[in-house]
Amino acid sequence: MTASPSYLAAILPTLVLGLSLRTNTECWAFQTTAFARIRTSAPPSAAVNAKNYNADRIHLPNALIRSSPCCASLHMSSNDDNDNEDVNPSSSTNSNVKFFELEDAFEDDGENVVGTKFFGGSTQKDELYVPEEEERALELQNVKSLKKTETEVEYRRFEDTNAFGDDMAKRVGEALQSAINQILYEDDDGVTSWKEDSSLQWETPFSKSNPSPLVELAESKSFYNKLDVAILSAQTVQSSNDSSVVEVRWDVGVVWPNPWESRVLLTGTSVLTVRDEGDTIVLLKQSDRLDRKDGKDIVGSLSSQLSPRFWDVYHIGMSPSSELDPRFDEAPPTTANKSLSKSNNNKGKKGLLSGYKLSYLPPRLVTEPSLVDTNGRAGRAAQALPNHGFTTAIKTMGPNKESFVPVTPVEIVISKDAESGGSMVKWTVPVPPEFASKAVLPLPIIAEDDDETEGDDPASMVIATPSTTRFTPPPARSNRPPPDAPQSLACEYSLRPTRLVATLPYAGNPQDEEVTALRRKLYQDVVENDGFVPKLDPETGRPVFFFWMNDAKACFTRKGGLGMAVYEWRAGWSESNEVGIELEC
């Protein structure tokens, strides 16, 4: 039996209305994975029930949140996201719902917000579209066009003396990155040219069919779904009149051509012998080494990253596979890590019955937003990346949708702030090679009139600046006091050094009360029982504890940087997050 068009037109409002009654204040994504919940990127308020964090959720900059059709509830009368409120819509509300034809419902013509024709018409569009915030999103996407201000709006990687400590190291790193970018991205930075000598000697763990590293890179580009290379740092090891020896550190990221598109991250170093010819750097010899005990074991580096990870497959319809920050059981014996053999921890040894995991982390380029929070544990400020940590807005739908790279984990460190009496909260997010390959990276705009949206209720807005705070009172239905605005907003890029850490698995969030007991147990097992020396905070003199959110994905685009955070639902039995302590390395 074939349904007539008139019959379908008659039942369409009923079907959509039923969907509206069911979903009410939450937006459910129709996917093959668990349902996704989109929330603002502001930290949740103290009154938020813990069950709010047991669903997948995506954190976006405010302007993008308001312009996304999935962010609005299908309950047309309210955008309230308070789980404690009555979720049953009134009959008067239902009677005002307008329905539209499906044709062109999701067309973005520059005037309409995508999807609002279907999800409520012009009333919903007026509610979601805020011109001021749309202009703000454009500012974030066009950071380079801004006039110079007192605060820096960009980070020039090759001018960072912590990463490129001398002039030769800077020139070698910049010239090599420029040559790589011309092959992978067709960028032409116009910097010192890079040339390979005709008698070049090249030793590498990577398979090669050509004696030239750049030619081999160009040929490899066609095999992988995506290939990115970033030169993170360089240091001159030896210098003479004829040549110089420079050690460079690199990250290589690839998307493997398999059905689940595994993301592989390889880190390592190369010792380069170069000759300076003024405006040209000539490569004479290159020796590559991976960051692992056997620096030539490319199979071992790949095998652990190619197999599908359970939670990536479970959430495959929500976001791409994540790029994992690498961890090693033993310190790689590279030139930069010779000091590890002289570490204070050479007497420490993990016991046979110890339940913690000991890991070495290689140097990585990271972005580190931070703030001072005075709302205490109940404020839950550390559970989500702050708004001022984002540098762009990612388009995830429509004809101009952008590709992005998710990275995991997001690290949180909470320490005492003596001046305010509150807590200094710092997030550390590794930067993927695709974005790190740029010579100039945008910094978040943190101006005196910046707005920070706090609390779980979008109607309650906290406008936070480094020196002033004002509140828009929440609706009368809420009796909770407004949270204090964050202070000392900051964000910077830095080259994270090699680290030695010990971690215990945990299924909760960074500000749970149970974390305190886990820290105490970790300190007792690692320091008191096994003899490792903890790294101390230079300001407080206390051990440095941290929290790894392995259920969080920070998403980057090459053009704009950090633009979205995805927080996955994971079952408690998986204990996928970790509580850790940093050790002397």
Description of the molecule:
It is built from 11 helices and 23 strands. It has 585 residues and is an alpha+beta fold. The strands form 5 sheets. The chain has an 8-stranded antiparallel beta sheet, covered by helices on one side. A 6-stranded mixed beta sheet has the order 1-2-22-21-12-9. The relative contact order is 0.14.
Name its key features.
single chain, 585 residues, alpha+beta, eight-stranded antiparallel sheet, six-stranded mixed sheet, 23 strands
How do the strands and helices of this protein lay out in sequence?
Layout: H1 5-23, E1 36-40, E2 56-60, H2 62-67, H3 91-95, H4 121-128, H5 131-141, E3 154-156, H6 167-184, E4 193-203, H7 213-220, E5 226-239, E6 244-255, E7 263-276, E8 280-290, H8 298-306, H9 310-314, E9 323-324, E10 357-361, E11 364-373, E12 405-408, E13 410-416, E14 423-430, H10 433-436, E15 440-442, E16 462-464, E17 469-471, E18 487-496, E19 499-506, H11 514-529, E20 545-549, E21 552-557, E22 561-567, E23 577-583
Parallel strand pairs: 1-2, 4-8, 9-12
Antiparallel strand pairs: 2-22, 3-15, 5-6, 6-7, 7-8, 10-19, 11-14, 11-18, 12-21, 13-14, 13-20, 16-17, 19-23, 20-23, 21-22
